[in-house]
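Continuing the series of single-chain predictions for the mutant panel. This is the parent chain; the variants come on the following pages.
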Amino acid sequence: MERIPILRMGPFLLVTIQVDLHDRLVVTFQDDLTEQISRTGARGVLIDISALDMVDSFMGRMIANIAGMSRILDAETVVVGMRPAVAITLVELGLALPGVRTALDVEKGMELLRASRGLRLGKEEDGDLED
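Parent structure:
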């Protein structure tokens, strides 16, 4: 079964979506991501959607749901790499993404996560994450 890789980078999880998304894959991704947040104690999630040409209303709602679930698990969500056409589509669909912060690219997204968690570059939070 097709899965979206979830990489751990210190106290954060990094997801780069490189495939066309279909409903089943999005649901599987949501389940995998919440499991990883819970298992690792991740403090933030960065989702790179720069490879996506289009996001439909289902995917937009799933991003909002993922951010909500992450927040409940004490992890912040940042979406990066949104193309202008994707942003326009989300606005035209009337989709607000509550709890989702955005940044232009992965580097700025990581800076945003570090700042929101009070981390300096290269400094991890006290205590290691569980493996």
